[in-house]
Structure formats: C-alpha cells, structure tokens
Amino acid sequence: MKQSMILLHGLFGGLSNWEGVIQHFGSRYDIHIPSLPIYDQHNQDNLEYLVRFLEQYIEQHKLEKPVLIGNSLGGHVAILFTHRHPDKVSRLVLTGSSGLHENNIMGNYPKRGNYEYIRERVAYTFYDPAIATDALVDEVLQITRNRIKCLRIVQTAKSAQRNYVASILPEIPTPTLLIWGEEDRVSPPDVAHEFQQLLPDVQLVMLSACGHAPMMERPEQFNRILEEFLGK
C-alpha cells in the first residue's frame, strides 16, 4: 500500500501549484490535494474551520499517518493539525508557511478587478516575476472579482495573523522539513529561522533566487530535497 501524501495550498493557491510534486512522487505515493474550503460560509474562526475540514478529510479517506506538505496558509493548517494529532502525521513539510509572521500580499482589501494591480501582487510572490503567467494572474483575478470570495480571503488572512503558533511549535515531535526561498517577501527568511529554533525535530533548507512558492519556482530542487527527507 502506498503511503499517503497531502498537499495543502495557500490562500490564493490551487491544485496546479503542486504539478511538479505530483509528477515526481505520483507513482509512489497516494497523493491528495484537497481544495481548502476558504470560501465557505460558516460561523467558526476561519482557520479553525480549515483545520476541522482537514480532520474530516483524513478520516473520510481513511488515511493513515500521511505526509503533510503545506505552502503558506496550507502550512499553517498543517501545523495546527499536527499539533493536535501528532500520532496521525508521519512527516511535516512547511514551505513559506504562515503562523509566525507574514506580509499580506493583497493589503487589507484587494483591489477587485484591477488587472495590473493583481499582476504586480502575484509577481511579488516569486523571485522571478515570469512565474506569474497570464493564466495564474487570471486565476487570482477571477477570485478577486467575486465580492464574497474577496471578503472570505480577507477574513481568513486576519484569522491566520491572529493565530500565532510560536507557543505550540516546541510541542510538535513530528520530523519536520522547512524548504524556504531566500527571497521570500511574504514569509521572509527570518521566519524560517524562527521555525527552525522552535521546532524540536527540524531540518531547514534555504533555496537561493526563490520566493514564496519553492515547489513552483524551484521544482527540481524542491523535489530532490523532499525525496532525501522522506528517504531518511
């Protein structure tokens, strides 16, 4: 039976963010990429709602000790889940994770429908602005054109900023890998080093000329580092 791997996207992320990981590991792992229900209407704290969603997802799919890999907001969700259920996670991988400090790339309220603004903000995510393809910009643009989705994004970002994980990180025994871009302007390198100081069983790898989404911007390096970590 293949080991399960769960890939958790960020606030503006999507399933396509993980194409490189899927191509590299898909034949050997049972890969799951749940779409986080960021836009659902509910009465809970937004981040709490996402953690509960992950709990239900793992239970419904009967996944035993998956590898959890989270980018940005997805990393934050993975941290909270692993802290609550350390016995249900085999390895934890964080890349550009929120939870300690992050810069909100869209500001307090996104400029809805402003193409150039959205393009500039998406490009800000990467070291190489060429990674912000027309398709990627259009994907984010469509989200920001929806008033309800915009509101949910702002609410979720604020929920993540309120949920400071420094106090719980020392309580996570799970082997953890941090893959971080040296040019990450959303969750800067200092954040990665703080994660490294607070987690008990942790390895940090910094990637040069790389921004907030290493699995997209440096897929070959990302997969090689992840491969080594999972093989230990």
UniProtKB/TrEMBL annotation:
Signal peptide: none
Protein name: Alpha/beta fold hydrolase
Record GO terms (molecular function): hydrolase activity
Domain of life, per lineage: Bacteria
A Pfam family the protein falls into: Abhydrolase_6
Keyword check for Transcription regulation: no
Lineage: Bacteria, Pseudomonadati, Bacteroidota, Chitinophagia, Chitinophagales
Matching InterPro entries: AB_hydrolase_1, AB_hydrolase_fold, AB_hydrolase_sf
The entry's keywords: Hydrolase
Organism: Chitinophaga fulva
Coiled-coil region list: none
One GO term describing the cellular component: membrane
Domain AB hydrolase-1: 6-224
UniProt key word Endoplasmic reticulum: no
